[in-house]
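Researcher: Structure prediction, please.
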Amino acid sequence: MNRQTREIKGFFYSQYFSDGLRISLGVLLPTLIFIRFNMFETGLTLSLGALCVSGADNPGPVMHKRNGMMICSILMFMVAIATGFARLNMFTLGFEIVVFAFFFSMFTVYGNRAASVGTACLLIMILMMEKALKPPEVLGYSATILAGSAWYTVLSIAFFSIRPYRAAQQALGENILDVSKFLRIKADFYKVGVNIDENYHKAILQQIHVSHNQDAVRELLFKSRLMVKESTNASRILILTFVDLVDLFEQIMATHYDYNALQEKFGQSGILDDIAILLTKIADELDGIGYAIQSNSIYKHLVDLSPELEALKIKIDGFNSGTKEPSNLVLKKILINLRNLNQTIINVFNYYNSRSSVLLDRNNVEYSRFLSRQEYDPQIYVDNLTLTSSIFKHSLRVALVCLVGFITAKTVMQGHHSYWILLTIIVILKPGFSLTKQRNYQRLMGTIGGGLIGFIILKFIPGTTAQFVILMVCMVGAYSFQRFNYIVSVILMTPYILILFKFLGVGHVIEERILDTLAGSVIAFISSYIIFPTWEFDLIKTDLYNVLTSNINYLMKIAEALAGKDVSMVEYKLARKDIYVHSANLSAAFERMTSEPKKKQRHIKEIHKFVVLNHILTSYIANIASGLLNNEHQIRHTENLKLVKRAVKILNETSNKIEPRKDETTIITSQQPARLKETPEVTLDAHLLKEQLEFIAKVSTDIAKITNIILDLH
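Model: Predicted structure follows.
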């Protein structure tokens, strides 16, 4: 119960709730102020500009937010003027809808922020369609929208200027909670009787979430001059915590073994249950730190797990004393992982509880190398104007479907707010079928559910004051959940809109909103299936290739260590970051494929097996790498190097089947030959390392076989 209460409190400290409050304040305040001066229409128009530009207020560095919203404001102003004149003639309006729908949908080639700018421009176009303005009024109305968007931009930047570290704290705290959930899933592998395959699926899904959110935190921290350049204690704490969090995630990934074999060998001993309990307790501590960072407070009650770790060590040491039971070396390795996890959490705890302003300075780290850069060259836009581009096909689909929606709104469903059909289409249509299907379901169910709630509120709560309070609550909730849980956002948004229309004197529009949403949903769903459809299997080869090449690069760091070469930690962490990002992308693509029609799910079982094998391979590489790179005095053997070379060769040949490369991956074996031995030492550590490398070679072979089937080369 305490954990559930903390999760609820954590939401109110999260960036989602902060976004909801900021957007609601930015949208509502102009109307409330101007209504006091009997200028309701002006206030409403200002609020409209603020509402639309808020769509471009995506998480990220302040400079990027500012630039995105400024560009969005200017484009919205131009679109508002164009729409104000185009709407005077049905044909010119239809032409504008097609051209703008295509043009702004193509903004997706420049990433999520640019795509949000494009959506905001389409939104202002749709909302302007039904606005009865005379030609002399268009420019003034458009200028008022520009003023509203400028007001929101200033408000948003002011929020982050007053508390410059708050967004980073919230994002980092949420990412810590994501890692904690992943650790709990890993703990389940050690529970006797758990379904290993189902737990793999849960782990892969959570890995997607962790990896994508880590990328967002990385951008927020490392692209911010305030965080990287200025040596304040607060900024260094955030960066140190994030660096250790990424290392912690690798340590959790490294606690990967053959769980079926572990259950078979040690399931009856009770040791695996003890390991699961310890991992859960470590996750509890991680939860506490994450919520403390989110709420900008201090976590004061870190539990000392040393006695339990020592008790586990004694139990492991005595497991096979004087018996013929299997070796307990694997359990000792797990114990080392547990100690490392515990120590990393203690380090993070100490960062936030130390009053000293002197912290380890890592400003010499090349943070910029860990960031992906978004190019905004116009040539990128031009290069994607081809049917081989999925974004081009998506933009064509949006343009054609918007035209169909416009014709439907003007002929079949001529309501007072028929623009809701186009609005639904813009929100629902996504580049891939599965995302469109998911958003379609969420939008439709949310609208119906919210419509029922709105009907109950309007019928049984007649008081204007009570309705206004409910409107504000629903408004904040809708904007808080729009990135977190879309269906909840729509459920809350619908009664907020219905109450707003009631205040505007429009009357009951519940039936019209539901029917228009249904019409837009049907049109969008059918079009995603028949108009230039994009299926995940057609795109997944790129993800397969990226995963294979990233694994090769990751393995190369082990090869270099085994060859006696000094491995740069920056290079190693870059390789680690790449494999985690590409693995998450592949897993996400597979999940989207499962939502597609059955006949479009080509080689679905094989791709699922590839995803699982890749997860196992990455975990084993992380397991070995963490041991090799942290043990400078470990003796290297040529036999181990040969095993890595074999795995690299297999993965190289496999990736070349997907996309032939000119360069060849080679392993330097001539450096520091004195540290290499031809005859392996007969020690338990050396034996386990060899077993793990042999398993990596075997998994690489299995991946090669599965890839051949996926590529229809078998």
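Model: The CA atoms of residues 180 and 286 lie 6 Å apart.
Researcher: Thanks, that helps.
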